[in-house]
Amino acid sequence: MWRFFHQWGSPKSFFELSGRCLPWIGGLALLTLFSGLLWGLLYAPADYQQGHSVRIMYVHVPAAIVAQSSYVLMASCALISLIWKMKLADVAFTTLAPIGGMVTALALLTGAIWGKPTWGTYWVWDARLTSTLILFLLYAGVISLRQFGSPTPQGGRAAALLAIIGVINLPIIKYSVDWWFTLHQPASFTLTARPSMPFEMWAPLLVCVVGTYLWMIWLWLLRMRVEVIKRESRSLWVKEALLIS
Amino acid sequence: MRDVLMREWWVASRSLGRLGQTLLFMVLVLVLFPLAISPERAVLEQVGVGAVWIMSLLAMLSAAEHSIGPDLKSGALDQMVLSEIPLWWQALAKALMHWLTVGLPIVLLSPIMCLMFAVEERYWFWITAALFLTTPILSLLCVLGASLTAGLNAGSALMPVLVAPLMLPPLIFGTQWAYQMGEPFYGYVLAALLSLTSVVVPWVVSLALRVAASR
Questions:
Q1: Residue ranges per domain, chain A?
Q2: Cα B202 to Cα B4: distance, rounded to the nearest angstrom
Q3: Which residues in chain B have Cβ-Cβ distances shorter than 8 Å to A187?
Q4: What's the pTM?
């Protein structure tokens, strides 16, 4: 049974296995994301306070959730790459970083767009926004640092260390930013406390979250496959695989 | 002489990663200000304009060394000194590339920075315009500082100290122009400063580059 897991560790088997999974994951992602977004953007009820502008929640919330969890995922891959020097772990870590950064940027942008009709401003320095901005900076730092280093687990050591320090720091950052926020007692608006949403609203949200996760995994596997081909380009199985496909 | 421009552009476009780092540094300072001072709109409005300026200044200073340092290390500087193309043109080309890769993105991003510092919307255009006039001056002065300290061991720490006094007049007039919402006097002074520096500084840089090449 463990052999099944170990197989994923070899670049060649990973390429074959992921090649078989990818269409299924992609199809499923498309299905869930499409249906979830359609449901949320068109059919879910409008908020009694915010009106139709609440619909951006179906994009913003999944993006924010995926942004945060993919950082932890990326840091785990970095840890594995650092300790066990697994080639594929380094590939996973290197390829996930830009995806996570992009999703964080999406969360920030959609949040700003949502903030304008709801709060009257695109940006406000409150705890959640600030910690998401810091998360984006962490991603950007890891992406920039990873470029300086060979495409091997050895070359990824510095960036892996940075990612791991970042993930340890993440709860500290959240704590301190929360503390800073309550210390300063700014403005009179209220944080968007997650209201107890009716089923008609959280069901499409859940579907969108699942869809976004699937999409992220699909994109990640795709990038990993490309990166594996790039790194192993001199080996025989790559040449054969490319000729076949 | 056009080849000199092309060469500088080619070198600059290879190191666009540096541009990303500079902008990242700026975003970092942007986050630090409200965290250290206060996130309340009332306070941010007061410091907003100044904070945007300081961030731009720091960003330009941090990218300054890269305009001269690599050339000195690779020996290209010696070739430039020996060539028949005037060295002041070379200096002007370097300053232009520094502005294009660092200064112009700052100008283009300044509305977003103003947004995050809760600067009142009526100031935005004037801040952008003031940055547009001031960043070339700052670029020229950055290249001046880099050429004066090129090759020195402690040079990169010394450079901001050298050029900061020189940067004060553009900074003062630029912020005043923005605060006064385009009062023409300050605009004229800024334009005059730009003309003056773009004529005098390349010549001084050429002298400094000769000194640097002989180190």
A1: 19-187+200-244
A2: 14
A3: 40-41
A4: 0.82
